[in-house]
Amino acid sequence: MNKEKVVKAIIAQGFLPLYFHPDENTSLEILKVLYDLGIRVVEYTNRGKQALKNFRSLAKESYTQFPDLILGLGTVLDSKTAAKGIQNGADFLVSPGYTKELFRFSENEHILWIPGCMSPTELIQVQNDGLTLIKIFPASSLGPAFLKSTREIFPDLMLVPTGGIDISDVESWFTAGAAAIGMGSSLISKTSMDKKDFEAIRLKATSLIRQIAAARTSL
Q1: What global pTM score does this model have?
Q2: Are 67 and 35 in contact (CB under 8 A)?
Q3: Please, which contacts does 48-56 make with residues 24 or more away whose CB atoms are closer than 8 Å?
Q4: pLDDT one-digit tens code per residue, 19-41
Q5: Which of 66, 74, 93, 133 is the most buried (most CB within 10 A)?
Q6: In order of start, what are the domains of the chain with their CATH numbers?
C-alpha cells in the first residue's frame, strides 16, 4: 500500500487504536466495533504467541468485511517479524524503537514503517533517514512538554505520542503539537476484551473521536 496514503489516513483519523488479544474471535469483534464507528486505520500488536496467526485472520477477513481498512502490525522488533507481517497482509509496520535493520528492510519492501523514538538523538537519525511519521514512546513518561519542545526543533516530523495516554489527556497532547495519538489500553482495556464488553469499547472510542475533533477545532 502507498506509504503516503497510510500516513494521510492516520493523520486524518487523529488516532491509531492498537490492541492484541489471544482469542481470534474477540480480536475480530473488536475490529468490527472500530470499523463500524468509521475507524479505518488500526494497529494489531505482536504481543503474544497467537498474534501473527490472529493478524493473518484479521487481514483475510478485512478483504470481505472491511474492504477499505488499513491494518498494521505493531511491536515489530526485527526484520524476520516484519517479513511475516507483510506475508500475512500488513499495510504498515510499527515498532517501539528504531533500528537500521528495520529501516533498511522497510525501504527495500516499500512499506510504511513507524519507529518509536524517545530522544533528540533518535529523532535526528530518523529525520536524516527521510522518515516523517514517528511514534513518541513511551509518551506517558515523556509528557506533552517534551513533545512541544521537540516539535520546535523538528517541525517537519509528524509525531504520534503513544504509550499510557489517557482519554482525558487528549487535548493537552494536541495542544503540544501531536499529529495524532496512539491509543492502547485506555481505549481497549484488557478487562473489556476479556469480558467481551464490546459496548464499553464502542463508547470509549466514540468519546475519543469527539474529543479529538474538539481538540483540533480549538487549535
Answers
A1: 0.97
A2: no
A3: 48/20, 48/22, 49/22, 50/22, 50/23, 50/24, 51/20, 51/75, 52/81, 52/84, 52/85, 52/88, 53/24, 54/20, 54/21, 54/22, 54/24, 54/27, 55/85, 55/88, 55/89, 55/90, 56/88, 56/89
A4: 999 999 999 999 999 999 999 99
A5: 74
A6: 3-115+181-217 (3.20.20.70)
